[in-house]
Amino acid sequence: MGVVKLEIRCPQTVNGIRLEPDPDWSFDALLSEIDSLEKKLNVSSSVPLPFTKTKSREFFGENGIKRSPSAFVMRISDEEFEDSEGEAEEVHDRGSAKAARFNCDEFYLSGSDDSDNESSLQVETYLMNEVGLVESALVELTHEHQLGVKEEIRSKISSLETDFMNESEKSSSAHAKVDKYREARREVERKFDVQYQRRIAEALDNHLTAIQRDHELKSQIEERKIRSDAAHAEAKRREKALQEERLRQEKAKAEAEMQAKLKAEEAKRVASEAERRAAKEAAEREADKASKANTSEVSQTEALGGPTATSSVVLNAQPKGFDTDKTKNSYSGGNMLRAAESALNLERERLQKLKELDERNQSLRSSSNEDFGSTERHIARLIRQIRGTKDNVRTKASELIKIFSNPRCPQTISIASFAKKVVSHCESPDNAAFACGHVIVLVTSQFPQAMDLLVAELQRACIYTVPKHISYSKSTFESKEAYWKAIGYREDDGKIESTKDYLKRLESYMKLYGALVQTEVAGGQNVHGLKEGWAWLARFLNALPANIYTAVALNAFLQMAGFALFRKYKSQFMKLLNIISENFLNALRAQEDPELRPIMAEIQSYLEDRKFLQEPEGRALQGSLLSSVMVPDSDYQDSYHQPNRYFY
């Protein structure tokens, strides 16, 4: 009898899982297939199943004996197949022959007991009908094995479902806890946001309150400062007006006395001449000849203003075309006022313009409700901010020109304020004289009328910018204090300032004047340029005596304008320097005053070291060389080798 082949009728697919027919199918293959199904379930499940296979499946028979997972083995005895004839053959001990593996291509696993019984009955009927008792035993064994496999599968599925439900409950509980925690966090964050916004609002309110308080305090301080400045300016103006009035009265009184004395002296002189005329005709002729000779000599020296006190002035020191000048030395019968007549005439004209401007401004202020104090403060602030750089000078000049062109403020008020603030600023130690000169020239090139007013303010502040000098006379001045006030000393709380402070201010005024006359800018015209500087120096040497005041004024002027004067006038300027060295310095030495030694040393050093060849510090603004703008190098070299280019 050969090997029996079993075929089980079963569906090809179960719950979407296809059973692959395999002629070599075994229980090991079935176990591996179940393991793969478990892995697929674990992968497809959202919650991992806590199931881990620790050992392979084991199968037991009816008697509790462990079965091997290998294929079924059927043993059939050869005795059953011996011939009936009874041939005695030896029983051969054959080895166990392994049966063919069951082919379960259509093996169907159902969870229903009825279906199991039905399929078992069908298989049993088939087997019994086909092969008999042995095959039925084999079917029974197969059925028992199938029941064991089904039971194990059911237990596994039940455990998997239980684990899955537990994990689902745990997941749902975890999701609920997470949602609850998230909602709690949102509530806490919302409370924190409300508290934070409340704190921000409170801090912002406090900050704005503090800012408002600071602004109010600053505005109050500014208002008090403005009122204080206005009161101080008004007090200064009144005090200045009183001083000017007193000075004008003193001058009028002095002029009246002078005229009376001059008339008396003139009468005495006429009487004496009438008495001596007959006896001194010959002497008068000689005197006439001498006066004619002196007149011809004066006509030759009028290039320098015709000095009357100094007879050693160098001839032909004036450039061609320069007007002659006369010197006024008489005041109350003596040499009290020393100045050139043309300089005094120009001073009177400028002071008259300044007076008319002040009167006009006063009428404008009284008739207008507009407050011009802010414009004046703006001008003062711009002048204080002047520095020795090209951009700074152009910026400040442009802003000042805009102020002058502003229709809201009368131009006369702006110009008057500009002149006063410039003169007062030059007294400060940090003033940049050359930079101020550039700003003045740039502004006055657009508004030429402002130059005379500024020079008038400067001459009213310092008489040596005219130039003129007033000598002390007991018959004219009641005391030394009155004399000092006449020449420009300041009085503070009834106390006259010291000579040292006065000389320091005098030097500042002269430095500004010297810087102004030598300044030239591209695209603008200096209406008070080097020609006025040359005239000042000639009038100074012709009319003014040598003392500490004139020495300080001369030294300051040369330090600022000497370089430009030499570049333009060359040998003629050298002649004036020789006059200073031979006459002015010698007159200072003759006084033997120890206070004169420092200023004498400075002037002597300026002449001996030829500092007029060196450009003074600060003259060239940053980014530009003023010397190259004023005189090109080629012209300078040509004129240097031709000393008589401007003269005859």
From TrEMBL:
Family: Belongs to the GLE1 family.
GO CC annotations on file: cytoplasm; nuclear pore cytoplasmic filaments
GO molecular function, one term: inositol hexakisphosphate binding
Biological process annotations from GO: poly(A)+ mRNA export from nucleus; protein transport
Protein name: mRNA export factor GLE1
Entry-linked PANTHER family: GLE-1-RELATED, MRNA EXPORT FACTOR GLE1
Principal location class: nucleus
Biased composition (Basic and acidic residues): 222-291
Origin: domain of life: Eukaryota
Disordered: region residues: 222-333
Positions with biased composition (Polar residues): 294-315
Compartments reported by the entry: Nucleus, Nuclear pore complex
Transmembrane segments: 548-566
Entry keyword set: Membrane, mRNA transport, Nuclear pore complex, Nucleus, Protein transport, Translocation, Transmembrane, Transmembrane helix, Transport
